[in-house]
Amino acid sequence: MATEPLWEVFIRSRQGLDHKHVGSLHAADAKTAIENARDVYTRRMEGVSIWVVESSQIHSSNPGEASSLFDPANDKIYRHPTFYDLPDELKHM
Amino acid sequence: MPTGKPDDIFTEKIAAEIKIEPKDWMPDDYRKTLIRQISQHAHSEIVGMLPEGNWITRAPSLRRKATLLAKVQDEAGHGLYLYAAAETMGISRDEMDEQLLTGKAKYSSIFNYPTLTWADIGAIGWLVDGAAIMNQVPLCRASYGPYARAMIRICKEESFHQRQGFEILLTLCRGSAAQKAMAQDALNRWWWPSLMMFGPKDDESPHTQKSMNWKIKRFTNDELRQKFVDVCTEQADVLGLTIPDDALKWNEEKKHYDFGEINWDEFWDVVKGNGPCNRERLEARQKAHEGGQWVKDAALAHAQKKKELSLQPA
After folding, report:
1. pLDDT in the model for residue B2
2. A91, B103, B173, B214: least surrounded by Cβ within 10 Å?
């Protein structure tokens, strides 16, 4: 017996904000997934826009390799504005 | 920065209150414990719709009907949030459905009691949802990310459930003598099963310590039960109802209410499947599952057909 595929649901809570992952659900197709997402995730006006993506289409980084993946950013503190020595008299910068 | 073995990294994260996420390494036992707990919780939300659904068509006013309908719809949503959280641990929805429908998985025993009068809908909102909230608020801090996030959403929605129940009872208690008696009768029947919702006593709950070490649970069964008794005793006064427990008494030394012994034989009997409605609840779920299968089949067939049509050259 075929099973309805799993979809990840993303919701924009109001105009001007990003869509944010809220959970997942099963549905036969994208249209039904959006309708179900409306009923499951926006019963109290939590959203103004819904994205659904089939879960099998999402690729992610491997948490086991997280340290080697993100480490290179660790020693580049000169990417932050506080790295630079400037006199206190300097205003508006 | 943790660089050791996977189980050391896991333990360090738990200690540092860093959430465990689906693809992180976790001990098998942690995974199994959470799959069991989250799926049982999901099943409870789904079966929990049945006793209340019993009264939707007979709600005494349009206002009551609309709110009860919204509440039952929320329970369905809560079940879905939780099934989705459990699925991130590698169990499929079909497996969980099967476990519920064959009776292999448990759900909260409270839903194996019948809703005999309208006042029962009030008592469920006040006591059953009240006990659920007491249990669930600490679960918003559970160490497994998807579970904690689902619980946050659920807790936000539960508070209306409890208030609508209390309002039903308050209205009955301010009504005729017969209405007040109906409210008292509901409290008499739901009080003890509600206390049982917190599970066995601490010294008979072998998994509690492990779950606390893993920061799935934050309080023991007895701690939560005591908190519930303390809160409800004062709320019963607002209603003018009497909690059916002769031993209920304020203990000045402990700063808590003492209360009587729970009938644990009844508790285990209902867990084992011999409660008043166990069989009826399972049959209702099986009927809904089988009766709704054609809808899923048709939706899938339709989706497949549309896909094939869109692949054909124009």
Report:
1. 47
2. A91
